[in-house]
Amino acid sequence: MKRGSRSTWLLGSVVFLCLMLLYLPAHAGPYVSRGPFVSPDPGPIIPGPENVPGKEYSNHRDENAAGAADPEQNIMWDGAGGIADTFDYGGSGEVDAIANNGDALFSSVIKNTSALLFSVTGDPNIYYESRGGAGGKWATPADINQDGVDDVDGLEVWGPEGSDDADRYSLAGDPGGTAVFAYDSGTGTSSPFITNAQIAAAIGWTGSTDYIDLDAMMTNGEMIMFSIAPIAGAFDGGEIWVWDGVNPASFLFHGGHLWDTAFDVSGTFGLNSENINALEAVSTVPEPSSYLLLGSGIAALAAWRRRRMRKKC
Predict the structure, then answer these.
(1) How far apart are CA 223 and CA 70, in angstroms?
(2) Cβ-count burial of 44 within 10 angstroms (0-12 exposed, 13-18 middle, 19+ buried)?
(3) Choice between 291 and 242, residue whose per-residue pLDDT is larger
(4) Neighbour count for residue 170 (Cβ, 10 Å)
(5) Is 33 helix (H, G, I), strand (E, B) or coil?
(6) How far apart are CA 120 and CA 207, in angstroms?
(7) 212-241: buried (b, 16+ CB within 10 Å) or exposed (e) per residue?
(8) Tell me, what's the pLDDT at 242?
(9) The whole model's pTM is what?
(10) Cα separation, 203 vs 235, whole angstroms
(11) 85 — phi, psi (to 5°)?
(12) pLDDT tens profile 128-170
């Protein structure tokens, strides 16, 4: 082969390989710690999934990272489609909600100083509502699971990266009258934490507690922010309550409105369901370098204006 022909062949091969890399699936591969990670601070910035550490979700129906049916199994996800198995609560039920006992930004989202994350029934995406009420998609199925998502049934973020910490969970139908279980990862055992009767009393429901089915939650100590499955003629599933464990629960005020029965979740965000399936919160503040750049820009603008004023004089 002549030297010129060989060079042309090598160049063509490199171009071909580069084009192949461009068209490879962007979200393929196993769980990989991504980043750069930010800290969970009350603030105006909504970080993307790759920048939030310790993400877990529960699929409907429960499955493991291999895609096989696996009751009460959670999955950790890296924000670019990579997944791995995390907590398996060991029973035969269907996980309906997950949380940590000290969820980050719990108080902040209640104070409307962080963005709210939520999912709805029959939808594989995770949505956000900003502090000002703007909304959109926070994570798509390609971000969550390279093999696809049926329905995000539970969500927990801001845990230790590459580890599991969703130590509170709810099961579909709230079997045995238990709305929330506490999970001890050391012993692999679960115990009732909040009952259906307590949730019913907190929201003022006087009908049968069998109708109560806790569907989404964040928790912090004895406090809980939660939603329940629809109850015909009473609740449409789009309500979010905050309860301190003692006093009557109140509707969450976030994004400039109450998340009560009157609030149109599906119409506001352009969704096909009113029923909230998962709850979380995200926000951070600009990096110090961003403040430095902003300060430098302001200083430069001030200097420019001073120079202009001198020329006019």
Answers:
(1) 30
(2) middle
(3) 242
(4) 29
(5) coil
(6) 25
(7) bbbbbbbbbeebbbbbbbbbeeebbbbbbb
(8) 99
(9) 0.84
(10) 11
(11) -70, 145
(12) 999 999 999 999 999 999 999 999 999 999 999 999 999 999 9
